[in-house]
Specification:
- The radius of gyration is 20 Å and the shape is globular.
- It is 39% helix and 23% strand.
- Strands 3, 4, 5, 6, 7 and 8 form a six-stranded mixed sheet that branches. Strands 1-2 form a two-stranded antiparallel ribbon.
- The longest helix is centred in the C-terminal third of the chain and has 14 residues.
- It is an alpha/beta fold and 238 residues long.
């Protein structure tokens, strides 16, 4: 008997496998003064078991962890997010059977408003199919046959966030001072360049019509001798 394509024996062992996984990656959620990795394991466990809205409050309740503790771990604890991501990059690049896959550039939006939500503003929310108050992230995923992972990501900050009048808002949202306005296409290309610089072996890049309409992005791919698959409207000038 099986469920979700897994044997019952494999399902029964998923909890142990998750703990083993987190022992490998959770080391990066420790700080010099505290070991907060248990909250990371609770976050992942709660996230995987969610049946409805995946917000911080619901995840904390599912994991039976205090909401404020979980929020602090994700938003304020000084663990190394880049270290954890780098560990994942290393795990992929060190396995030859995972080389030669496909990069996929896309974005994802969440309903969000208010002065404290970094990057929030009226912009296109693909999930809702309309322009509304939202946060938008640009993401780069990597796939090779049945294996896939999120490789990189960056929060898109609308241009109005960099106006002189928005200086207080940027400070309140803790936007790094070195950030400047960049389009989603520019953020996407930077992530593709980072993937190459980090030693990822991939055969091609794919992106939808938002990025496919960009002659600038397609030209960058051609100049870098990167094979790409772009969704371009048939009435759009090349």
């Amino acid at each position: 008997m099986s469920r979700w394509g897994l044997s019952l024996e494999a399902i029964a062992d998923l909890g142990n496998r998750l703990q083993q996984f987190w022992r490998y990656y959770g080391q990066w959620t420790r700080t010099r003064t505290r070991d907060t990795s248990a909250y990371g394991l609770s976050y992942m466990s709660g996230l995987l078991r969610m049946k409805g809205s995946r917000n911080m409050a619901e995840i904390a309740r599912e994991a039976q962890v205090g909401e404020q503790n979980m929020q602090h771990f994700m938003s304020h604890s000084r663990w190394s997010g880049q270290g954890l991501i780098g560990q994942m990059h290393q795990a992929v690049t060190e396995r030859p059977e995972l080389h030669g896959g496909l990069l996929n550039l896309d974005e994802s939006a969440d309903e969000k408003s208010g002065d404290t939500s970094a990057g929030a503003g009226r912009q296109h929310n693909g999930r809702m199919g309309k322009v509304d108050e939202a946060q938008v992230g640009v993401y780069l995923a990597y796939a090779k046959k049945e294996h896939w992972t999120l490789w990189d990501g960056c929060l898109f900050l609308p241009e109005k966030w960099f106006s002189a009048s928005a200086a207080g808002r940027r400070a309140k949202a803790e936007i790094p001072s070195e950030r400047s306005f960049q389009t989603k296409v520019e953020l996407g290309w930077q992530m593709i360049e980072r993937a190459k610089a980090n030693g990822l072996s991939f055969e091609a890049v794919a992106f939808d019509s938002l990025y496919g309409r960009s002659y600038w992005l397609r030209e960058r791919c051609e100049q870098a001798a990167l094979e790409y698959y772009a969704d371009i409207p048939n009435n759009y000038p090349l």
